[in-house]
Amino acid sequence: MYIEIKEIGPEGLAISRSIGAFRLPLSGRDSIQVDTVHLSGELNKDADGISFAGRIETAAKLSCSRCLEEYSLSLELPFDLFYTTEPESAAAADNRIDDDLITRVHYDGVRIDLQALLSEQVYLGLPLKPLCRPDCLGLCPRCGTNLNEGDCACAEKRTEDPRLRVLKNLL
Ligand SMILES: [Zn+2]
Ligand SMILES: [Zn+2]
Q: Which of 1, 38, 95, 125 could form a disulfide with 114 if both were Cys (CB 3.0 to 4.6 A apart)?
């Protein structure tokens, strides 16, 4: 899915599109399922390139880093990009845009690849340590029970008074 630069008039171009679900490859053989995306934003031409600011709304299926259960994370990702045909090295040396919040993206000068934009922004928007909920209890390190679903037998042993255990061992 692309936006052709010639579609952008002198007054800019506002877009609002739904883009079908896709799988986002991660490092290694992993990938995650990303739901239908709603992408909205505005493109404006200037002498040096195309500015594209907007937001992405979607949800991704992630595995909780504590309990390993799969859950759905809602994502609302604002972005502020500047598409330029200048090679990256030239862009880096160019200080005309000193706002760090704007990310420069190299492109071919003809069209903007929305799928590449989505993949990049969703990837950047994923948490480093996904949690199904902020207070996820995780798995018991001894028996592997998901502690969100209830205590395991190990919990009783843990809360037992150690002095009683010594006594029990003597009996
Ligand atoms: Zn969890
Ligand atoms: Zn346990």
A: 1
Task: Count the neighbouring beta carbons within 10 Å of the beta carbon of residue 164.
Answer: 9
CA of 123 to the centre of ligand 1 (A): 20
pLDDT tens digits, one per residue of 123-135: 999 999 999 999 9
**Ligand closest to the CA atom of residue 151:** 2
Dist. CA 133 → ligand 1 center (Å): 6
Q: What is the dihedral of CA 118, 76, 32, 120, to 10 degrees?
A: 30
pLDDT in tens, 7-16: 999 999 999 9
